[in-house]
Every structure is written in structure tokens, then in C-alpha cells.
Write a sequence for this structure.
């Protein structure tokens, strides 16, 4: 298949720039694969679409303040770094803007803090390896990074005011615990304590995995032949308790419902023969394209994704390309809100 087959037209005003006042007020489009039918609903009604004995699997990764704004020395020119991965203590792989001005040896400072950095290696696609130091004082590098960093909102959230105080709380899920993501697992943003309580009261179990969302999740697909695309590896963990819950659910005839594409990738990366999930801790570069045979999940809750993105390819693999694009056309016509702070779809 060609990447151009996974395109759709989206009016700019449907891209959500702010979260709704209430997390669970989002709309939810139901995609029934067996019936090939669409139904408009609301996320607060999710408990109506699940059954006793089903298992909801969520990603408990926590977004850290990975966006740094600094200046080049001695010119004072503005520079922006997105922290992607810590290589060793104080040394990070980053995405830099403007990358062409950051050669090896470039010196950086961040505001009035004691945090300093040097570019020690240059890679492709704006990747720069940076070594952070503390100029003076007793503060640690980690403390200064947390203090200087901002919530790394996606590029399509383009407000005049930029990052807001609300983002530090609303760009986290209510089950976010394990620090390490540079983007939120956005399907989980709709959940509230009330929805979770109603789900468990109805006989639905909830289990957690961790996949630290990194650059691989949102890196653009740069090849027309999608078979040539590979998702960059991201770290993940599935505990023995969660693996047992998944295997028990399937043995008893319940459905395994993945909350988000990140959860789906983690579970599909841990599957063994006979559709059993194993405990695992490591990295996954699993790239799910149309034609992939899912073995770990039975349903998928997900937000609406960018055209020509690896996430849209994953959803198309699960729901079918034609049905997925039909759902997207319906969502545009019905004026659903799109992307990270937008509405969601439940594929059953």
C-alpha cells in the first residue's frame, strides 16, 4: 500500500487547541467491525459498551517536562530542545531547533538558571546529543531540567499563549505514574475516577502497562511505500500481574481492550504462541501496518490521528483501511474534535 492512500481532509478548526472543561465530556465514535457500522456516542457512556469480564488495559506512563527553551552562547540566539532519551547521566539525545545552528561544541544556557549544556554529537533529522552541566550551586541536573522544562505539547497545538498552566495537569492521564514519556498516551486523557469506578462496578477489570511514548510514536512516515517504514524503538514493561490478568481474561471469554495505540503496540509486542501475553521489560520497534494479524487485543479505544501517520496505519490495520477512513470522513462531517485534546473512537 502507498502512504497517499491514508490521507484525509481536515478543517483546521477541528484540531482541538484546549482540553474540554471535563475529561469525560468528549464525544466517542463507535466502530463496530462485525456490522461495519458507525454510531455517535459520548465517552462517559463507555461502561455501556463493555461487558462484565472484559479487561481494560491502560498505559501508566507519565509525561515529563521535556521541552527546553534556551540560548546559544555567546550570541544569545534562541534554541529549543526536546529531550528524547537519556543516554547516561547528564547526557541526552534531543531534537533541536534550529538544528543547523547547533554544531558539535555549541554552548547553551537556559534562562537565569545554572543549567548549561554542550552539543557533543550531531545526527540526522535534527537529532543532537547534549551533555548538561550545572554552572554553580547545589541543585542537581535533574532538578534543573524539571524546573526549566515545559510540557511538550504536539506541534499542531498552536496557541498564541503557547503552553498553559492547565497543560501540566490535563496533558497527563489520571493513571500516569511512571515518568518517562515525551507525549501523552492520549486515549487515556478521557478517563476520570468516576468512569473508572463505574467500569469496575460493572465487572470490568483494569490493568496497567508502561510504554514511554517517545519520538517513534509521532515520527512522520517519510516513505511512500508503507512497507518500508519502521517505528523507532520505545521502552516498555508488562508486569507478571498484568500478563496474568490478560491471559485469565481471554481464558474466561472476556475481551482485552487496549486504551490507546501505545498499549496496543506493547501488548502485541509481548504475545507468545496460543495468544498468551508474557511479562517483559525492554524495547519494542514493532511496526503495525494493514495486513497485521492482531493476537493480543480484541478492542481498541483511540483518539483521531494525523493523516499519513504510523498511528493511522495501526488503526487501519485493526479496523480495516476502508472502514477507518469512512469513520474519519464521518467524524469530520459531524465535527468531532481531533488529535491529542480531541474526541475518541472505540473500535469493537
Amino acid at each position: 500500500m502507498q502512504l497517499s492512500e491514508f490521507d484525509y481532509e481536515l478543517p483546521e478548526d477541528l484540531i482541538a487547541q484546549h482540553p474540554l472543561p471535563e475529561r469525560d465530556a468528549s464525544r466517542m465514535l463507535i466502530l463496530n467491525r462485525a456490522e461495519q457500522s458507525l454510531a455517535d456516542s459520548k465517552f462517559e457512556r463507555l461502561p455501556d459498551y463493555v461487558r462484565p469480564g472484559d479487561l481494560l488495559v491502560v498505559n501508566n506512563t507519565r509525561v515529563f517536562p521535556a521541552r527546553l527553551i534556551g540560548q546559544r552562547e555567546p550570541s544569545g540566539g534562541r534554541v529549543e530542545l526536546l529531550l528524547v532519551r537519556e543516554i547516561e547521566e547528564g547526557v541526552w539525545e534531543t531534537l533541536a531547533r534550529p538544528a543547523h545552528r547547533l554544531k558539535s561544541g555549541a554552548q547553551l544556557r537556559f534562562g537565569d538558571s545554572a543549567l548549561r549544556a554542550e552539543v557533543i554529537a550531531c545526527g540526522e533529522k535534527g537529532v543532537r546529543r547534549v551533555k548538561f552541566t550545572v554552572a554553580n550551586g547545589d541543585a542537581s541536573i535533574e532538578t534543573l531540567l524539571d524546573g526549566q522544562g515545559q510540557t511538550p505539547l504536539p506541534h499542531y497545538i498552536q496557541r498564541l499563549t503557547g503552553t498553559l498552566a492547565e497543560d501540566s495537569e490535563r496533558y497527563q492521564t489520571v493513571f500516569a505514574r511512571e515518568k518517562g514519556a515525551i507525549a501523552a498516551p492520549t486515549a487515556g486523557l478521557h478517563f476520570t475516577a468516576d468512569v473508572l469506578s463505574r467500569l469496575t462496578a460493572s465487572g470490568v477489570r483494569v490493568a496497567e502497562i508502561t510504554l514511554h511514548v517517545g519520538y517513534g510514536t509521532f515520527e512522520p512516515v517519510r516513505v511512500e511505500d508503507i512497507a518500508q517504514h519502521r517505528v523507532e524503538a520505545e521502552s516498555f514493561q508488562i508486569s507478571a500481574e498484568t500478563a496474568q490478568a490478560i491471559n485469565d481474561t481471554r481464558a474466561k471469554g472476556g475481551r482485552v481492550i487496549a486504551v490507546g495505540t501505545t498499549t496496543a503496540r506493547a501488548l502485541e509486542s509481548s504475545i507468545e504462541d496460543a495468544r498468551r501475553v508474557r511479562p517483559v521489560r525492554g524495547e519494542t520497534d514493532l511496526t503495525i501496518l494493514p495486513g497485521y494479524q492482531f493476537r493480543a487485543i480484541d478492542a481498541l479505544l483511540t483518539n483521531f490521528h494525523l493523516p499519513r501517520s504510523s498511528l493511522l496505519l495501526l488503526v487501519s490495520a485493526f479496523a480495516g483501511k476502508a472502514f477507518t477512513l469512512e469513520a474519519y470522513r464521518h467524524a469530520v462531517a459531524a465535527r468531532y474534535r481531533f488529535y491529542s485534546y480531541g474526541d475518541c473512537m472505540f473500535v469493537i
The domain at 3-63+167-347 is CATH 3.40.1780.10 (QueA-like). The first strand starts at residue 27 and ends at 32. The chain has a mean pLDDT of 94. The chain has two domains: 3-63+167-347, 67-148.
